[in-house]
Structures are given as C-alpha cells and as structure tokens.
Design goal:
This protein is α+β, with helices and mostly antiparallel strands. It is built from 3 helices and 5 strands.
Length: about 150
C-alpha cells in the first residue's frame, strides 16, 4: 500500500495496445562482451534477455520505468541457459522472447538468440536458448500481484 491507502496498481499506466506474448530485438555483439577468442561471453546474454522482456512491455505501451514508479517490480527467480553455437564479435543476433505462462504473481519466458545473416537477412543457427521465471514484488521485496493485464498472458 502506498500513502493514502491507494494500491500501486491504481497509478500503473494501462497498455496502449495489445499486450504481445512474443517479440524480437536485434543486438550486435560488442567487443567488450567477448572473451579473448572474440566469442560472446556467456554472461553477455543475460542483458540481451532483459532487453527482450523490456521491449515486450514497451510494445504494449508501458515502460518498465513506469511500472517501477508505480511500485511494481519484476525480479528474476530462475534463469536457465543453454549455449548451442558461439556468437562472435560483430555478429548480429536476434533475441526472441516469448511469454510461456503467467500467473497472479509470476511470468515465465522462453528465449532464443539466433545469428542473422546480414547479406540475406535470414536467420542462421541458434546460439543460445533460455528460460526464466520472474516474480512480481513491491518496493520492499514483498510478493504482490501482477497488474491484471500481465497476469493472464498468454
């Protein structure tokens, strides 16, 4: 509860369009994300996954910053990654994010990072796949319900 007895979701912005359950964002592997062999370090993928989740919200017309301002936070409680093929310095990757399931307090996502052939624009090999669970908490870290427009997806 916020001061005045209002629930944080009272001030949460509503989506301006349909809430997508899948999306993609393209990233280029930067030199600073690579090991000495110019292979993307395994830890570089985690921020790319976050970018994918953030852009799903943005596509609905809500930013993560707006959610935080309303006292709604999504924290990672589980993250599993599988690495299939190396991504290298300057590769263009498409990070695909899908909402697999949402409950009253959690959202499960699945991801794929796919190398894109820049000459043809066609997808190449999957470099990494992952899954995550995010829990909804308030500003004090206490579990709270997701906004209703997120809780029923997909």
């Amino acid at each position: 509860m916020r001061s005045g007895g209002r629930n944080a979701t009272d001030t949460l912005p509503a989506p301006t369009g349909p809430v997508p359950n899948a999306g993609a964002v393209r990233v280029r592997v930067r030199y600073c994300e690579c090991d000495p062999m110019n292979v993307a370090h395994h830890a570089a993928y985690v921020p790319w996954l976050e970018m994918g989740r953030t852009e799903l919200l943005r596509a609905a017309g809500v930013t993560y910053a707006q959610m935080e301002a309303a006292g709604v936070y999504l924290v990672i409680t589980r993250l599993e990654c599988r690495y299939h093929a190396p991504a290298r310095y300057d590769d263009l990757l498409e990070v695909r994010t899908t909402v697999v399931r949402a409950t009253r307090v959690k959202i499960d996502h699945a991801y794929e990072a796919v190398r894109i052939d820049e000459a043809t624009g066609t997808p190449g090999p999957v470099t990494m796949s992952a899954s995550s669970t995010l829990a909804c908490v308030d500003a004090h870290g206490k579990v709270r319900e997701l906004p209703s427009w997120l809780a029923g997806a997909p």
